[in-house]
Amino acid sequence: MTTADTDHAPSAPPIWQRALLWLITIACFAWLYTRIDAAAAREGETMANYLLQVFASVSWGTWLALMIPYSIFFFLVDSAVVWRVVSWFNARVPYRDILPVRASAYIISIVNEQVGKGAMALYLNRRHGVAGWEVGSSMLFIMFCELLYLTFWANVGYAIASDTLPPQFELVPWIGVAVLALFGVW
Predict the structure, then answer these.
(1) pLDDT at 70 over 90
(2) 3-state SS of the chain: helix, strand, coil percent to 5?
(3) Cα 49 from Cα 52, distance rounded (Å)
């Protein structure tokens, strides 16, 4: 590779790829719209009134009283997991340095969770000199652990309330077995 090859910035993806992403997004919103509109029609309401009734029926004080402490607790635990993994496998990083990075990654994760993890990896690379492949493997490890514990909790929920769930949820234990088999093979 010559220096002339490395001087060029990477080219933007072709227009069809960018258009495809927008089409998928529009299709998802259209599907969501039809589902909400159909539910509203079954109730004899317009979609706007239906959504207003749904949101009005929520006990926001109770919801916030539960969600704010839970979110703070989850943030601290999740940050501790990231801190422990990074400290074990990559570099000694103080817990207090992980907190703002993890909080920023949560905000970025609204768009895409992997982009949030990528932002953490970029921070660790630039601030602490951790090689990209090393921190990338740590992020993959965390993602796999997240898959395992989410599968576990899905199965706990299914075990507790399987008789009240739609028939599609009968797949949950089988998905759990598949995830454990994947873990065993890995």
Answers:
(1) yes
(2) 85, 0, 15
(3) 5
Helical axes 47-56 vs 15-42, angle rounded to 10°: 80
- How far apart are the two ends of the chain, measured CA to CA in Å? 36
Backbone phi, then psi, for 28, in 5-degree steps?
Answer: -65, -45
Count CB atoms within 10 A of the CB of residue 137.
15
Decide: 151 and 179 in contact? Cβ < 8 Å: yes
181, exposed or middle or buried, with CB in 10 Å at 0-12, 13-18, 19+?
exposed
The string of pLDDT tens digits covering residues 111-140 is 788 888 888 888 888 888 888 888 888 888
What amino acid is encoded at 96 in this protein?
R
From the list 134, 148, 142, 150, the residue with the least C-alpha distance to 105 is 142
What is the C-alpha to C-alpha distance for residues 116 and 100, in angstroms, rounded to an integer?
Answer: 12
Cβ neighbours for 135, distance < 8 A, ≥ 6 positions apart: 86, 90, 120, 121, 124, 125
Calpha distance 81→146 (Å, rounded): 10
CB 40 within 8 Å of CB 49: yes
Looking at residue 162, its amino acid is S
E-only strand ranges, 28-183? none
pTM equals: 0.66
